[in-house]
Every structure is written in structure tokens, then in C-alpha cells.
Amino acid sequence: MTDGTRSDGPPHHAARPGRDAVVIGGGLAGVTAALALADAGVRVTLLEGRPRLGGLAFSFRRGALTVDNGQHVYLRCCTAYRWFLDRIQAADLAPLQSRLDVPVVDAGKPEGRRLGRLRRDALPVPLHLGRSLATYPHLSLAERAKVGRAALALKGLDLTDPALDDQDFGSWLAAHGQSARAVEALWDLVGVATLNAVAGDASLGLAAMVFKTGLLSDPGAADIGWASVPLGDLHDRLARKALETAGVRIGLRTRVTSISIDENGRWSVQVPGDTLTADAVVLAVPQRETYDLLPPGALDAPERLLDIGTAPILNVHVVYDRPVLHAPFFAALGTPVQWVFDRTEASGLSGGGQYLALSQSAAQDDIDRPVAELRERYLPELGRLLPHTRHAEVLDFFVTRERTATFAPTPGVGRLRPGARTKAPGLYLAGAWTATGWPATMESAVRSGVSAAEAALGALGRPRPRHLFAFEEAA
To answer: How far is residue 202's CA from residue 211's CA, in Å, rounded to a whole number?
Structure first.
């Protein structure tokens, strides 16, 4: 590739000492790192083994539909991802709620389904959630009072205390008077979706970070945003356009086989049939692939990367012949169903039907079930939650599985997550699984890409682009 615009195969260019970087991995972390480096005047090559960018937040075609592999949302407090959307000129395509409002349907009541809401008022923290909590029908009056006390205790935790990482969130909740019902109807309702783990399996440090940042920092911090178009439009098409405009050379379908450094401090990146050279390399790939590519001595204990577990996410996709849900999304209790989103317009579905996507996090029990079993399991549950489905015809039913969707946020994982810098000069790490302080979210991925780029720019003697400060100031 010589013109910097073709996307297949490894790019070729002459080395420019002190100004060349190769980013390995085209997910959000790698795209962010490449953009930040290019904006600082570094000549960047981005290599991705897949035929597209976007990592684990992508779209594909199924007949006439454009389907996201999974439902991805972000919060107003996700300032880095919001910066990323601005940078690729996509903010209008992934709007935020004007104010947090989550319908919560409980299908487990003997008297029938019951609707509650989690929403905020225009009041300071923690009063912004006071009225919603006081009237939340899925908890008793005593449970609501105890939730308030636990929230205040959570707000008082010091997120810099490493001891929090060694405790599990479930035990902490139990010690602070939270019943099993309160965990199900509130703490796990939020925590499973953001951490990809139930409270008992999650690090207190990560859980505290989620709740303190999302619910207890700013009244609008937890307002929810999601893409109104297929994710591929954002993370592949618009991201690729931004990269090419910035001068980044993109090599898709290009698998890196090894990296090494020579006696002059220059890096060689091996791809099938070619070698690229650079002054800096950013590894923005999953932890197992990072381990396989790391040169000796780059990390003190590289085997720790293999101790970072993974957690699955299952998405169930159902197309009905008519509208059955008259809201953009809802969360569910008393049922295996977790969150349900209307993806009709975004998918391009026409003809009067409706397309729903069920996002099932911490899906260890379901991830390997055959489609027929999942259909038998979830369609009746949708019938309990959405009465209109009982008279609707199912036109299509399929699932998407991400068996290693995120790193597992288990107690102790914090000490396993490496930072951006390695002991190998000019080699940097990025990925949502690195030490960003966040769980495995799009926000964490973007933050990791910024951190890796900052570290590389410092070593290359390049100033950090001023716009990279924007999301930190917004926070």
C-alpha cells in the first residue's frame, strides 16, 4: 500500500526516524492511540487482523438487517468515549438521554408484572436519586432505607485504596445490610451490565468506581447514551475516515506475527511477507495476544496477563411481525432476561415489524446453549414481560456470542492489569483490560489508547495534542 488509503494488506512506507509508530489492533483502544499519535505529527501505521475496525463493538449484515454483535451503551460520565465520538464526528449518532430514566419491569410477582423506574431529578448528589429510590416499587421501605445508607458508605470509600481490589462487592453489600432482593433489584441491575459480573464475583474496587462515578459524582453522570445507527457506522466507517484524514495508514486483514527491537532502538513488526519498522509500537490487542507478542523482558511477570480471566456476553435477537415494545429499552427482574433494546430503526428493519435485542451479561450459564434451547428459554420470558408478544409472530430468532467479551473483574484483578508503559523502550500497551481504573467498557478502551499515546509521545519528544485534555477537563 503506497497511497495511504487502501485498507487491505500491510502498508509500506519509508522510515522517518523519531516520528514513526505502529499500532497493532484496530479496536477502540488502537484507533484512539493511532488518532492521538497522528494528531501530534507522528507517522502512524495501524494494523488489524480482521477486515474491519471496531474490535468487539461491530456490526454485520443478516439479510436486510444490519445487526450489532451486542448492545453497547455509555454514560454521560464516560468523558473519554464522548471525546472519541466527537473526534470521529459521530456524537450526533449516539445521543445521550436528557435525564436518566430506566424502566424496570418485574415479571416475578405472583400478581403479575410490575413496572418501576430509576430516574433522576435536577437536584444535587445524592438528592438527585432520592425521589426515585423512595418510590421504587421493587424494594420494601426498609430495603430502600438501607440502600441509601449503603450508597453513602460507598461514596466514602477511597478508590485509591488497593485493599478494595481484594474484596468482593457482594460481601461488602451484605455487611452493609443489603438483602438478596436489594442486590438483585438494584445493585446487580446496574453492576452486571457495567462490570459483566454479579456482585459476589466482582472486585469491590471496580464496583465502587462504577457506582461512585456513575451515580454519586454528578447528577447527570449516569444518563445513558447509545448508538442510533449500527456500531459499524461509528467504530469502522467514521473511525476509518478520521484515521485516513489524519494520515494514518491502515492495514486490514494483516496479522502481526512478531515484534522485536534492534540495537539502535528501532522496532521491527513482522507481518506475512513483510517487515515494518518504527520508533514506537502500541500493542492494542487482548491480553493473550499481547502475551504472545511481548518480547522478553518487556514486563516483569508477563504470565500475569494469562491470569486475567475473561467473561462472556450473550445477545439474543428477536424480530417480530409487529411492534411489541413502546419504549427504547427496559431492564427486567424476576426473569433470566436482563436488558431489552429496540433496534428496529438502527437495523434498517422495515415493513412494520420490530427488532429487539436482549443483552445478557455474565452469561456463563447460557453462552454455549444451542440456539433452540435459547429460543425455548427466552421467548416465553419475553411473553411474560411484554404481553403484546403473545399475539405476534416471530420472524427471526438468532444469537451472537462473545465468549471473551470482557476481562473478568474478579477480586485481585487490579494487580494483574499492566499500565501503558513497558520495560522495553518504545513499546506500549493499550486495551480495556489494562490499568485504566475502569471495568472493561468502551470508556476504558479509549482511555487506554490515550494513555499509550501519551507515553509514546513523551518518549518521542512530541507534545500532546491540546484536544486530548478535553475529556479530562469535562470530567
So the answer is: 13
